[in-house]
Specification:
The protein is α+β, with helices and mostly antiparallel strands and 432 residues long. It is 44% helix and 11% strand. It has 16 helices and eleven strands. The strands form three sheets. Strands 1, 2, 3, 4, 5, 8 and 9 form a seven-stranded antiparallel beta sheet that branches. Strands 6-7 form a two-stranded antiparallel sheet. It is globular and about 55 Å long.
């Protein structure tokens, strides 16, 4: 898969979709480039992507279901101490990384390095069924763990390290330029997210989706929260990754754009300030992928359990379907100020499902269960059409019953008193 600049420093904008295509600019940043040495990248032809998706697995169902793919960032840890270890570079050099660009297997399904050498990234192929997506996620986690074992490490689906860490930067020109530009924000940024790509038919449809999903994204953050610890201490947050990530100046919720032209104008003006290296540093909570016909929802922590990642993907696709249907029906987006959305995201990050959340429809505090039920009601028609409702409801009941990943991490520490046990438990859960 071709890699672009993206999350966590961050060279990701992946998971091509095979349901529909839209034109993309022919040039843009790629791994190892800075804003001063861009060179053109050819657009991936639709026929090539269709062929690769066919090679990736079973043909889609006859109904027009949007494809969905997931990127996961995983922590590399010492199996004895649980502390992060900077071995990603050695894994890539040994050939565990992606195969050469231009082959089907190289577009998705391999491993990749990230901003810091204490993490790896995986990316699934585009899928139509959540069952296939779950199989991909389990396979890729096992692949990543096998690679990590070859360097004396293990992988853990933890969105932040419970232990203090001084991350070691991956030595590309792009990352070095980011460290020079952003200082401690870059130097301390060791966080792992779960990003969901969902197919859209055009930039106009994609931006219409972005405008309409924005009040619902904090509920996804709450369901996926898996980062209570930072620098060896309990932060009091369920998703401290959300707080750490908000230090990037281009991150967070966005205003309603109204059109694709307005979206691209905002992106152009942001890059033109000279504050960002390039378009790849547009870290909106949800954004268009400029290379593939998808919207990318970026608010979730990497999930401790694969089931939770599948839940996030299923809800994300249903949100996109629902938003697109509203747009086609002429239903305007909710007029929620971005400043209020930031508070909703903060609330979700702080307490996850353990306290109140901000209700997306009236922006008033409600119990987490009421807000989660509102999300399910909102996307129920889309889940039914996609055949996902029973699966998603079962996964949702599971999370509501046992809590998010942050709950499990805290329970392990309360039982044993050792952060190393928190990491060891996460290692076991990651590859279960």
């Amino acid at each position: 898969m071709r890699r672009l600049a993206g999350e966590n420093g961050c060279d990701t904008d992946v998971v091509p979709c095979t349901v529909s295509r839209r034109d993309r600019p022919a040039g843009g940043p790629h791994r190892g480039q800075t804003v001063t040495d861009l060179s053109p990248l050819e657009r991936v032809p639709a026929a090539v992507l269709r062929e690769e998706a066919a090679q990736a697995g079973p043909a889609p169902a006859p109904t027009p279901v949007r494809s969905v793919g997931v990127e996961e960032e995983l922590l590399l840890v010492d199996p004895s101490s649980g502390r992060p270890v900077p071995v990603a570079g050695s894994l890539v050099r040994r050939g565990h990384g992606r195969v050469p660009v231009g082959t089907a297997a190289g577009r998705f399904g391999g491993l990749d390095s990230e901003l810091q050498q204490e993490q790896l990234e995986t990316a699934t192929p585009p899928r139509v069924t959540l069952g296939d997506l779950a199989l991909d996620l389990r396979r890729l986690r096992r692949t990543a763990d096998d690679a990590a074992r070859s360097a004396g490490a293990r992988i853990a689906a933890l969105a932040t390290s419970p232990f203090p860490v001084s991350p070691r930067l991956t030595q590309t020109r792009r990352y070095l330029a980011m460290r020079r530009q952003f200082g401690v924000t870059c130097a301390e940024q060791l966080t792992c997210g779960c990003h969901v790509h969902v197919a859209v038919d055009s930039d106009e449809e994609g931006v219409a989706v972005l405008d309409r999903v924005r009040p619902w994204l904090p509920v996804i953050t709450a369901l996926a929260a898996n980062s209570p610890y930072w620098n060896g201490a309990d932060t009091g947050y369920a998703s401290y990754r959300t707080q750490a990530w908000s230090r990037w100046p281009s991150s967070g919720p966005t205003d309603v754009f109204g059109s694709a032209g307005a979206y691209h104008d905002v992106v152009h003006r942001m890059v033109s300030t000279g504050s960002l290296l390039d378009e790849g540093m547009i870290y909106f909570d949800a954004r268009l992928s400029w290379r593939y016909p998808t919207v990318e929802l970026r608010v979730a922590d990497v999930c401790l359990d694969v089931d939770d990642a599948v839940l996030v993907a299923g809800l994300a696709r249903a949100l996109v379907d629902t938003a697109a249907a509203e747009w086609h029906a002429g239903v305007p987006p909710l007029d929620v100020p971005t400043s209020v959305l930031r508070l909703a995201a903060w609330r979700a990050s702080r307490s996850s499902l353990a306290d109140r959340l901000v209700h997306p429809l009236d922006q008033r505090p409600r119990s987490a269960r009421v807000v989660v039920q509102a999300l399910l009601d909102h996307v129920r028609p889309a889940l039914e059409v996609n055949g996902d409702l029973p699966y998603v409801r079962a996964l949702l009941d599971q999370v509501l019953g046992r809590g998010c990943g942050a709950v499990r991490q805290r329970a392990v520490l309360a039982k044993t008193g050792r952060l190393g046990d928190v990491v060891a438990d996460a290692v076991d859960r990651t590859t279960a």
